[in-house]
Amino acid sequence: MGHLPLIIYNKLFIVPSPFDCSQVLRSLKTLALRMKQHSESSLQIAKYLESHPKVEGVIHPGLPNHPHYELTKRKTSGHSGIFSIYIKGNLDSSKKILQSLKKFTLAESLGGYESLAELPSVMTHASVPPEQREKLRITDNLIRLSVGLEDVKSLILDLEQALKAI
After folding, report:
1. Diameter of the chain by CA atoms?
2. DSSP readout, 30-74?
3. Which of 88-112 are b and which e, b meaning 16 or more Cβ less than 10 Å from the residue's Cβ?
4. What is the rounded CA–CA span in Å between residue 25 and residue 67?
5. pLDDT tens digits along 105-151
6. Nearest Cα to 163, choosing from 100, 106, 82?
7. For 125, which of 22, 35, 118, 134 is 20 to 30 Å away at the CA?
8. Is there a contact between 83 and 59 (Cβ–Cβ < 8 Å)?
9. pLDDT of residue 165
């Protein structure tokens, strides 16, 4: 399959404007710095949560207990700022935590420059049948975090105060 002729792009209005292009170029100039910050901050937070008494488990490729930790070390120079935690609790517990967060914003679209959180079982994966979610371990106590560029200490404090809600 080849490239679509330029006329089709123009007819479909999917050609970015010069301003959009300049914004993309501008953001690419700081991408490496932003990704480094996402990676470092998410790992710090994951390590903190790993030993938290109200957290059942942490899924982060930068942690030695992750099944692909060695592969990640060999094949990548870092990782994203997105990872998951299992809290000790149920759907109500997860909702209380998410409602208590001040620095993390509740959102389905993760990966921006700001810190975001979501509850996959009732958000991104709500349409997946419950039996299938259970097989995939997408349970009501699974919370996904996207660590942004904010100060990591303030994000840890935010998670700490939110975990006190359960």
Report:
1. 59
2. THHHHHHHHHHHHHHHHHHHHT-TTEEEEE-TTSTTSTTHHHHHH
3. ebeeebbbbbbebbebbeeeeebee
4. 36
5. 999 887 778 999 999 999 999 999 999 999 999 999 999 999 999 99
6. 100
7. 35
8. yes
9. 95
Q: In angstroms, rounded to a whole number, what is the distance separating the alpha carbons of residues 8 and 13?
A: 8
26: amino acid identity, one letter: R
Q: Where are the alpha helices (DSSP H) in the chain?
A: 6-12, 18-28, 31-50, 69-75, 91-100, 130-135, 152-163
**Phi, psi (rounded to 5 degrees) for 94:** -60, -45
Q: What is the mean pLDDT of the chain?
A: 91
Q: pTM, whole model, 2 decimals?
A: 0.84
**In the numeric block, which tokens belong to residue 55?**
């957290």
CA 69-72-77 angle, to 5 degrees, is: 135
Contact present, 148 and 115 (Cβ < 8 Å): yes
Q: How confident is the model at residue 66 (pLDDT cuts 50, 70, 90)?
A: confident
